[in-house]
Backbone:
């Protein structure tokens, strides 16, 4: 089936939806805005976007194209978080204790645009949300190229961007901005978490072939993983096969890998590209002859390629639903998500929910929607609750310090249910996985 697309999303392609009527929940403005913010000149969409009894959020995720399945999962996480924030759900209150109903008493309304994983589409849609709806916050990602483009838009427009899925080092590295924050793991932390697990399982001096998508996510993840394994284990990259987003056929890349002498196939592709390239690697006879490694886990990969392919495969991830056994908040999240949507959440949904919950906490902590004060709230070190234990923001680059989860694919006979694809091998604390704040060239820029 061919999807209709345009480089500039029409009004029809932008779904405007509101969850929950604001009713009589708005607080008097004097209670919402401290005097120091009230005295400031307008900036971005403030204060215009906060005048009524609700505030607007612009969401852009891929709903068509190679990342569409992951985008829909991410969107469900955002939708559940908005619903929970508006009703003052106990799960939100566990992360943002000052939340009652809404944020600073204002209900959240939102619009959704299909980015198709294209930076221009995402930027044009979010620009319209900012201009027409006075969006007080924007979000999106799944493609790191989109995330980087929205970073730049946010800094220019002085509207906060809370990043959705983005695995590139650059998002909070050389392309970081004062008006952008990211809570999920990324190339460097993934590499430093999975690297020791691979060396422990397989030893030193192995030959590896990489499959890399040709944009910022792929290049930075491949570099981080290769750097760790070569420096710490003497592993050797014998080939790096770089492919465009949405490639329909990987046979030429797989032929090169088959002739490379590699013992390990490290697949950095994402979304449907990861599914296709993995399926074709099996058809070519590369799997299970070579060991498959997924350094940056793709939601729904195991479901789509089958547990016989992912059995024994190591992957690094943000979250897996069986973490409910260790973390009470994770259990509550998995249960409420599954009840609403009929499946156990993947890490995209978890990431999206946490990003919004932590944004609500930052705004409530600031006591205002005034953007510089909200940003300073993020930059004020404090311990925060999450679905993976205690976390905190790093003020220098706006990256959340959070654990990375190492999983290994279960054999089909060991699966407790149809979604029990992975076992959690280790939850690696985040602080020791991160590069120094300036190592990747982060310079946040100004508040105003």
Residues:
């Amino acid at each position: 089936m061919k999807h209709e697309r345009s480089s500039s999303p029409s009004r029809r392609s932008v779904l405007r939806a509101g969850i929950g009527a604001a009713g009589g929940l708005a607080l008097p403005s004097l209670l919402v805005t401290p005097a120091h913010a009230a005295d400031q000149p307008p900036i971005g969409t403030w204060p215009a976007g906060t005048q009524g009894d609700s505030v607007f959020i612009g969401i852009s995720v891929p709903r068509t194209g190679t990342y569409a399945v992951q985008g829909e999962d991410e969107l469900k996480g955002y939708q559940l978080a908005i619903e929970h924030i508006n009703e003052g759900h106990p799960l939100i209150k566990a992360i943002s204790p000052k939340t009652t109903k809404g944020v600073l008493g204002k209900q959240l309304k939102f619009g959704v645009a299909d980015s198709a994983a294209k930076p221009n589409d995402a930027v044009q849609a979010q620009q319209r949300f900012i201009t027409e709806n006075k969006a007080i916050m924007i979000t999106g990602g799944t493609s790191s190229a989109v995330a980087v483009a929205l970073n730049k838009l946010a800094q220019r427009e002085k509207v906060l961007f809370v990043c959705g899925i983005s695995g590139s080092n650059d998002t909070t590295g050389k392309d970081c901005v004062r008006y952008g924050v990211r809570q999920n793991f990324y190339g460097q932390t993934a590499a430093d978490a999975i690297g020791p697990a691979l060396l422990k399982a397989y030893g030193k001096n192995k030959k590896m072939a990489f499959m890399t998508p040709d944009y910022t996510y792929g290049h930075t993840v491949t570099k981080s993983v290769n750097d760790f394994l070569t420096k710490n284990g003497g592993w050797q990259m014998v080939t790096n096969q770089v492919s465009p987003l949405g490639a329909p056929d990987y046979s030429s890349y797989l032929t090169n890998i088959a002739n490379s002498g590699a013992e390990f196939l490290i697949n950095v592709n994402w979304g449907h590209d990861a599914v296709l390239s993995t399926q074709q690697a099996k058809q070519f006879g590369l799997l299970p002859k070579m060991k498959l490694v997924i350094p940056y886990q793709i939601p729904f990969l195991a479901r789509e390629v089958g547990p016989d392919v992912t059995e024994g495969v190591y992957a690094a991830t943000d979250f897996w639903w069986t973490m409910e056994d260790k973390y009470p908040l994770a259990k509550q999240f998995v249960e409420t998500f599954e009840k609403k949507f009929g499946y156990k959440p993947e890490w995209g949904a978890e990431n999206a929910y946490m990003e919004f919950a932590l944004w609500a906490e930052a705004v409530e902590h600031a006591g205002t929607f005034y953007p510089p004060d909200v940003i300073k709230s993020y930059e004020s070190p404090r311990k925060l609750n999450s679905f993976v234990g205690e976390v905190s923001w790093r003020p220098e680059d706006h990256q959340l310090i959070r654990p990375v989860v190492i999983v290994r694919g279960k054999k089909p006979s060991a699966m407790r249910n149809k979604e029990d694809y992975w076992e959690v091998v280790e939850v690696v604390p985040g602080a020791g996985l991160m590069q120094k704040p300036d190592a990747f060239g982060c310079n946040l820029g100004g508040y105003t």
Remarks:
- DSSP finds 15 helices and 15 strands in the chain.
